């Protein structure tokens, strides 16, 4: 029987007790130590989840038992782990988080010495060590040591403030979801010259204010607060603050694709995004003589292509952006600061986003277990080809993306972190969008 795959598109993630346990964390610590040749040092941070200290203790034990030093930086946003790994000269970083998932979930994500997430190939090597239990040994007097670093937060703040230039007086409402951005994000915006109003910025791993996923269904309070306080901008983070979404001055949640296109246009050159990004990316970059490269879903895939192509900017249409001029770890706080800089200098966000054409855009999720997802996708390409008669191109780099003759497109892809098959599409008309959605959802459901 083949070993079960531990890593998804964003590290290890699952429900506490059944999928993510202290035993798993202990063995991941041992496996990472072996991967690092039972030497070196690792940075560990965690978000606000109530189970994080349990996992931190376990993964630390696994590392130090097998010769690796541990630098603990406590509760921090995910981007600070990537940043700290570079700044502290560590060999790897670990972030304990389940990002936007509910509080009963948790996870483990690994970072390279350059601040970029572990690649799928690296994760496979960790899995191989994990299942073979070939951890190596060190003598009792060679076990790793534990240290704590609180200064790295101040360095992170100072370095972020050095690369943004926000015109003073911008009024911003920040919703941190009671997550890992709750302490640092409001402070950074204030230090950058903004007038800040906070929502859900008390640290609480039960996420009492809202679900940590920053989407329109969870942001009604932020939308109302921006209008009620006559603010210029609303910023929402997910549970670990590696993502960001904005609310404009009218209380409208911004379109993810349009935001990505707006910032990409500012950077110019070559930008990298994923197969689920919309048409406005291509239109925006065409205007400035730039180029769009698409890759698999997942920040590490974007990061790899950015490094290979020396791209100026990259991101996913989920609010996950990578800033090559700072760190190759997704950073929702820096993303928010950059949006604030643009709005402070160029005017109302609603007007800035209005430059992009509105096409009907839909995202659907069909519940499907991890085991079922494999079977469902086996013959999906053939089923989709038979269902549509105007297909121009088929891309199978990550799931199945169909491009149609009129410019419409659809991506059918199994989630790497949750029990869903996702359908993402964009069409030139509402009727075409509904037809594509209904056809794809029906095919998926019939094959579960």
From TrEMBL:
Alpha-D-phosphohexomutase alpha/beta/alpha domain: residues covered: 5-135, 155-251, 259-357
Domain of life: Archaea
Record key words, sorted: Isomerase, Magnesium, Metal-binding, Phosphoprotein
Keyword Ribosomal protein on entry: no
Cofactor note: Binds 1 Mg(2+) ion per subunit.
Protein role: Catalyzes the conversion of glucosamine-6-phosphate to glucosamine-1-phosphate.
Molecular function via GO: magnesium ion binding; phosphoglucosamine mutase activity
Positions that bind Mg(2+): 99, 238, 240, 242
Organism whose genome encodes this protein: Methanobrevibacter ruminantium (strain ATCC 35063 / DSM 1093 / JCM 13430 / OCM 146 / M1) (Methanobacterium ruminantium)
SUPFAM superfamilies linked to this entry: Phosphoglucomutase, C-terminal domain (SSF55957), Phosphoglucomutase, first 3 domains (SSF53738)
Catalysed conversion reaction: alpha-D-glucosamine 1-phosphate = D-glucosamine 6-phosphate
Post-translational modification: Activated by phosphorylation.
Family according to the record: Belongs to the phosphohexose mutase family.
Modified-residue entries (Phosphoserine), positions: 99
Classification via PANTHER family: PHOSPHOMANNOMUTASE
Stated name of the protein: Probable phosphoglucosamine mutase
Gene3D superfamilies: Alpha-D-Glucose-1,6-Bisphosphate, subunit A, domain 3 (3.40.120.10), Alpha-D-phosphohexomutase, C-terminal domain (3.30.310.50)
